[in-house]
Design brief:
single chain, 290 residues, alpha/beta, Rossmann fold, 11-stranded mixed β-sheet, globular
Length: 290
């Protein structure tokens, strides 16, 4: 696989791109055949590397986790030409060692969501991608290095259980997830990571611990105000990590196996494929449908 230029898509908070120092920044309204994305993208350069930002919850955090159009968000990033996607997210901790204020480079997911479109494919065009290792190890390592350089305490690896929300989990659920082997908990990692893989986009998540979920007997449950306060306090660290990532990327992006995740994934015979769905997938799967 030959090298190409880096173009990093960033999915995060609504104010993440503000003050990060993007050169030639532009806000661009984007559209997708899968519906409306969370909002416009902000694109520009950091240290000579193209970055495109998308606020997962829209301007002013108006979109709850279950209503985020994850398919449209990934689709428009693919249409913008991004080569890789990093996700910045808030999480609760299920492990004592992963303390509030720490960051976790997530490498595994358990999907407990149930009300979200979780694939670009469907009747008329069936595909099965491998998701054994949902996070890109190369991108995750670069992102973890950047966060450590920004002064964060980073845990390299962790299993993220994605819940539907918008409520936080019960104590019984929180303890069950610990028994399952989950390390952190959030509401947005899935189906985002699934869809990135279907779109052949290497994906890495740097998640900030905001609380110890509800599993500790001697502590109160999670309160949104505390979560938001810690997120705001650590916004500068997240911006610094993104800037450091830009500075640390190799000059040439060597190919990744994820770039060709769909090569052997399509199950539907060409003569049985749905033309309308094929047209919708011109960005996501155009490489294998042409």
């Amino acid at each position: 696989m030959s090298g190409r230029q880096w173009h990093i898509g960033v999915i995060g908070g609504s104010g993440l791109a503000d003050g990060i120092g993007l050169e030639t920044a532009q806000d661009i309204a984007v559209c997708s055949p899968f519906g409306a994305p969370s909002g416009p993208v902000t694109t520009g350069s950091l240290g000579g590397v193209r970055f495109t930002f998308l606020a997962r919850h829209g301007a002013g955090h108006a979109i709850p986790p279950s209503s985020v159009n994850y398919r449209a968000n990934i689709d428009v990033l693919k249409r913008c030409g991004v080569s890789d996607v990093i996700a910045l997210s808030a999480i609760g901790s299920l492990r004592e060692a992963m303390a509030p204020g720490h960051m976790v480079a997530v490498d595994q997911f358990i999907d407990r969501t149930h009300a979200r479109a979780n694939s670009f494919f469907g009747p008329g065009l069936v595909a099965h991608v491998s998701l054994a290792d949902p996070a890109c190890p190369r991108l995750s390592a670069l992102l973890a290095d950047a966060a450590e350089g920004a002064g964060a305490t980073v845990h390299r690896g962790g299993c993220y259980v994605a819940i539907e929300g918008p409520q936080f989990s019960t104590r019984a659920e929180s303890r069950m997830y610990r028994q399952w082997g989950a390390d952190v908990i959030g509401m947005t990692g899935m189906p985002e990571a699934r869809l990135a893989r279907e779109a052949e986009l290497p994906y890495a998540m740097l998640a900030m611990v905001t609380d110890y979920d509800a599993w500790r007997d001697d502590a109160a449950g999670v309160e949104a105000a505390d979560v938001f306060a810690l997120m705001g306090a650590n916004a500068a660290v997240a911006r610094n990590a993104v800037r450091r990532l830009a500075a640390s990327l190799p000059a040439v992006r060597e190919g990744s196996p994820i770039d060709t995740a769909l090569t052997h994934a399509l199950a539907t015979a060409p003569q049985a494929r749905d033309g309308r769905l094929m047209a919708m997938l011109d960005a996501v799967a155009g490489r294998v449908l042409r």
